[in-house]
Amino acid sequence: SELIRGFLLSGMPCPSSCPPGLLALMAPGLALMATFSLPSQAGDRRALPVEKPPGVKGRTLILLDVNTKSPVRIISENFLSLQLDPSIIHDGWLDFLSSRRLVTLARGLAPAFLRFAGKRTDFLQFHNVKNPAKSRGGPGPDYYLKNYEDDIVRSDIALDKQKGCKIAQHPDIMLELQREKAAQMHLVLLKEQFSNTYSNLTLTARSLDKLYNFADCSGLHLIFALNALRRNPNNSWNSSNALSLLKYSASKKYNISWELGNEPNNYRTLIGRSVNGSQLGKDYVQLRSLLQLIRTYSRANLYGPNIGRPRKNVIALLEGFMKVAGSTVDAVTWQHYYIDGRVAKVTDFLKTRLLDTLSDQIRKIQKVLNTYTPGKKIWLEGVGATSAGGMNNLSDSYAAGFLWLNTLGLLASQGIDVVVRHSFLDHGHNHLVDQNFNPLPDYWLSLLYKRLIGPKVLAIHVAGLQRKPRPGRVIRDKLRIYAHCTSYHNHNYVRGSITLYIINLHRSRKKIKLAGTLRDKIVHQYLLQPYGKDGLHSKLVQLNGQPLAMVDDGTLPELKPRPLRAGRTLVIPPLTMSFYVVKNVNALACRYR
Questions:
Q1: Helices (H), 356-440
Q2: What is the pTM (predicted TM-score) of this model?
Q3: Pair 122, 259: CB distance under 8 Å
Q4: Taking every pair of C-alpha atoms in the chain, what is the biggest distance, in angstroms?
Q5: CATH node for 63-130+147-465+476-590
Q6: How far is CA 92 from each of CA 160, 216, 435, rounded to the nearest angstrom?
Q7: What is the C-alpha separation between 581 and 483, in angstroms, rounded?
Q8: How far, in Å, CA of 144 to CA of 85, rounded?
Q9: Which terminus in the chain has less CB density within 10 A, N or C?
Q10: How many CB atoms lie within 10 A of CB 196?
């Protein structure tokens, strides 16, 4: 039996000298090795069905090995990045970005990019004044908040002189007033979104200071999307307002990267006229020329065109853009939302067909880039579980994590360099942090990812029993497995360690036996499950059975693993997400940065 076990776990075939009796004994076990998949096809990993030998029933043991010699992909250190929507100017949250609690939460996800963009990008105008006069009206949330903002401005001026990091402990009463104001504004913002009619927004110099202060204090690199809908009569881009913003930022020596516009394929529905790919490319070339005239930004990065879902007309726009500005941008960007947030239900987040929709989009984008600029980096910006602001107790619940973690795994395995999550803090229910500044399930999932996952992606080898599909049907994986070198920034693990992350969409537990290079190694388990009676709808999570919550406004909790003895079978509970660090593998691919 030990001989059989050795052959199975090593993946080696039985030598020709095996006696026939031994081969007969091994037949049921060898069936476990009948399927094979690689993470470079993770979004469409379809097992090859095999006939089950007589007497073998529904076993759930899966054998897993990882190629440790070299990575199949290397992604950015800032792979998991964040977005803030300009609506935070409208609803007032911009004034509270200096909150110690928010900065602590953002620091937990550094290093990362912070993209300031969204549907209101193309209605944003910069006004170079520090603190414009405001109409306070009568007593109410606005009246008190504006007086409070004046106090913040005065304290900011003092901090400006000290050139310090501006972190505040905002009084509870002011936060409560702000939440009241934001709730009122939420209805206005939703009405604009559903009608696709947006009002103009003004970004003052003081507001830009607050935005940059948040990014800088949090260890995030700011990417600012400029308004592309300021147009001249000949439909070329009017850059006068953008130039004012660039000059002010340069005078403050702000380290910023830039974009132009948001979802240009939707401009016809917004303003009644379109901007084709060729014209948009010329606009980007114009922006690059502006940046080169300003010493601070002569070498700044420029990203775009941030198109929507790559349907036929959008691909045509991208092709026109790449012909003109393919060499001008440092990465090509697009965005994706899985579900219409107005009609979503919890079972949507468990559909493997939905998880796999992203693979086709990646192929379409890659095909265009391979034609015009082979090797150009690709970013997915503005990704979220649902559009239309999301749904309470759904897109902000544990269930949404299945889409988010699979998105991270799939994009990394396909070589997408950066994914920007919409949104860190926002109106609606697609964010990582709610308006009480409490982290939601996707925040904890992102934090674990940042702490445990490094930029090197590894190929996996999986073998196990799969049911045979009915004629004309395809079996899609309900067990998603991805592997990376463990993060070099995590000093709890020596270089050469490997991290697996696993999504189990089955309604039954699955057992995984580590084989080959992973065999008989100590494993640290990080099992993330919903906490409380709400199940998949829960906004609270537990790690290895312990609820996760901030210790205080300046301290995140310790993420404690559960050590598993060497050689132990991994048991994956149903409908869960988990990370497993395989220690001391000494993987060649992971020894060096």
A1: 357-372, 401-413
A2: 0.86
A3: no
A4: 93
A5: 3.20.20.80
A6: 22, 20, 11
A7: 10
A8: 24
A9: N
A10: 10
